[in-house]
């Protein structure tokens, strides 16, 4: 006997209660109209008061320092300063977008939908996670830029010397004077032939996939990945221990709120606090230097 | 017993009747003025633009604090960007020789040109911010939950498309800000393992930002990405209706 399989949605739209409904015209259409008009007026006003920027004509021979991506990509540009370029520029955003897409398939409960912060502890969870993401990112940036060590030295006369140089920035861990790496550590072979992939364009040549540079791998990929994944898991685990995280939804709130904090801090630092040479500076000292390469 | 007599129509009534009850007007607008519940529902159901909405909606959803109109405003920014973008296209030629001069020309010689360019720029920034805030609203109200899982995924795609639309537009003024921002941005794309250099080459049409990059970004900005965004928006709006409207407590 043939079996007929009928596709059914996982959850159905809820039945409608007519007495709790209002007509779209005028109740909704007018709200939409007013908000659209309000934004139109505000944008006209902004456009009247503030001109879109236009610098000198593009010139490949005159570099901008600092050269910055559009503001919504400055979070990634900030990440680039702290880790491997492929990890910061491609892997992190791609993985995060996939994680975002997977949210509703991970949390399949229909509880608490349609209401702001419907779950118990969700406001506390959101506020604390957001702040941990925000200020934790700032702390990590200050540490990895060497500023924390500089201030410790200037204000308290504390200096870790070369053995504690990793306290200044993680990149110091690559230095053999800080960590006694064995001679073979920076060239561990894993391919015994010359694999040429997409070998074209400037800088192309013998592929670099044949050998692993362990110190670089650790500093540029291992430590940042450990921080990003480890701290997120640690925060969720901690909230689980203090009973703020009970459900998958709670865990997602921690993750999302932490992400918003991190995203915001990275964007603000990248936009307003990075000056020439991508050094940390105060926003009022921010100037864009233009120069001919080699003759600045 | 006094019987109420019908009053004589005033001049205003006659003019109104001539204007809105004639054959031509009725051929365009099937319903009368929406001042009765019947006409109010008919106008939403029969108007091509308004029929994105259902005729009725749950009373909690018209409260401004429920959605802050963020999704609708994002769409409104898209429409505004389309209008101002078309006006800018009248004067802009995407060639290295002309792009920068055309922008200067728009700002100085075209009537309201500076205003149109400013509107386009600030609306683009507003759209990026609004789409991000809309995502947060959907998340914190749990509106991604079943049966709206797929529409959340479509929303994430639209978020990426919004970023790409803004990014491709960034190069078009062909000034130092644009040139170096796109150089940095495409270098980020080029850092991907294995496929990075190829992706960067494909994006720029060469190894550096130049005439080929400008025409590619322009084409993507004015036709490729808006078309893709429009398709995904259509799916997004359609799914909102099919999945039972805005999320609300079960």
Which features would summarize this protein structure in a list?
heterodimer; A: 296 residues; mainly alpha; two-stranded antiparallel ribbon; 7 helices; globular; B: 250 residues; Cytochrome Bc1 Complex, Chain C; 2 domains; 11 helices; flat
Structural summary, described in words:
The complex is a heterodimer of chains A (296) and B (250). Chain A is mainly α. Chain A is 48% helix and 4% strand. The longest helix of chain A is centred in the last third of the chain and has 28 residues, at 214-241. The radius of gyration of chain A is 26 Å and the shape is globular. Chain B is 66% helix and 1% strand. Chain B is built from 11 helices and 1 strand; from the N terminus they run αααβαααααααα. The longest helix of chain B is centred in the last third of the chain and has 32 residues, at 211-242. With 250 residues, chain B is mostly helical. The relative contact order of chain B is 0.09. Chain B starts with 10 loop residues before the first helix and ends in an 8-residue tail after the last helix. Chain B has 2 domains: 11-50, no CATH class; 70-242, Cytochrome Bc1 Complex, Chain C (Up-down Bundle), CATH 1.20.810.
């Amino acid at each position: 006997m043939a079996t007929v399989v009928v596709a059914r949605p996982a959850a159905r739209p809820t039945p409608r209660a007519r007495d709790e409904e209002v007509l779209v015209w005028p109740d909704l259409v007018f709200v939409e109209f007013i908000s659209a008009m309000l934004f139109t007026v505000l944008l006209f006003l902004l456009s009247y008061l503030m001109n879109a920027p236009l610098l000198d004509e593009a010139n490949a021979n005159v570099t901008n320092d600092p050269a910055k991506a559009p503001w919504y990509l400055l979070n990634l540009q900030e990440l680039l300063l702290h880790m491997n370029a492929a990890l910061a520029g491609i892997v992190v955003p791609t993985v995060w977008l996939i994680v975002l897409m997977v949210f509703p398939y991970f949390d399949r409960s229909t509880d608490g939908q349609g209401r702001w912060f419907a779950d118990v502890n969700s406001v506390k969870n959101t506020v604390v996670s957001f702040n941990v993401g925000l200020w934790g990112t700032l702390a990590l940036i200050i540490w990895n830029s060497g500023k924390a060590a500089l201030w410790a030295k200037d204000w308290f006369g504390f200096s870790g010397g070369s053995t504690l140089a990793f306290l200044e920035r993680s990149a110091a861990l690559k230095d053999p004077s800080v960590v006694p790496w064995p001679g073979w550590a920076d060239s561990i072979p894993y391919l015994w032939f010359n694999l040429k992939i997409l070998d074209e364009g400037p800088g192309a040549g013998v592929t670099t996939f044949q050998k692993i540079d362990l110190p670089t791998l650790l500093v540029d990929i291992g430590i940042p990945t450990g921080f990003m994944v480890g701290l997120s898991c640690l925060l969720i685990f901690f909230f689980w221990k203090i009973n703020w995280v009970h459900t998958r939804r709670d865990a997602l709130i921690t993750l999302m709120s932490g992400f918003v904090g991190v995203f915001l801090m990275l964007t603000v630092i990248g936009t307003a606090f990075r000056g020439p040479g991508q050094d940390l500076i105060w926003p009022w000292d921010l100037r864009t230097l233009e120069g001919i390469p080699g003759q600045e | 017993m006094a019987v109420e007599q019908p009053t004589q129509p005033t001049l205003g009534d006659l003019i109104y009747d001539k204007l809105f009850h004639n054959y031509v007007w009725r051929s365009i607008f099937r319903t009368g003025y929406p001042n009765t519940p019947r006409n109010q529902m008919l106008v939403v159901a029969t108007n091509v633009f308004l029929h994105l909405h259902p005729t009725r909606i749950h009373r909690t959803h018209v409260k401004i604090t429920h959605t802050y109109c963020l999704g609708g405003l994002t769409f409104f920014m898209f429409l505004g960007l389309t209008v101002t973008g078309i006006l800018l296209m009248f004067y802009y030629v995407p060639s290295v020789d002309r792009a920068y001069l055309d922008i200067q020309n728009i700002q100085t010689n075209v009537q309201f040109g500076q205003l149109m360019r400013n509107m386009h720029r600030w609306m683009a920034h507003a759209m990026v911010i609004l789409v991000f805030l809309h995502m947060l609203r959907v998340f914190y109200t749990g509106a991604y939950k079943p049966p709206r899982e797929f529409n959340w995924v479509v929303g994430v795609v639209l978020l990426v498309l919004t970023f790409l639309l803004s990014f491709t537009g960034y190069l078009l003024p062909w000034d130092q800000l644009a040139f170096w921002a796109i150089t940095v941005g495409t270098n980020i794309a080029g850092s991907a393992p294995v496929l990075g250099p190829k992706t960067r080459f494909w994006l720029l049409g060469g190894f550096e930002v130049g005439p080929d990059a400008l025409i590619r970004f322009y084409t993507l900005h004015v036709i490729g990405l808006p078309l893709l965004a429009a398709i995904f928006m259509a799916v997004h709006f359609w799914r909102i209706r099919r999945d039972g409207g805005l999320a609300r407590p079960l």
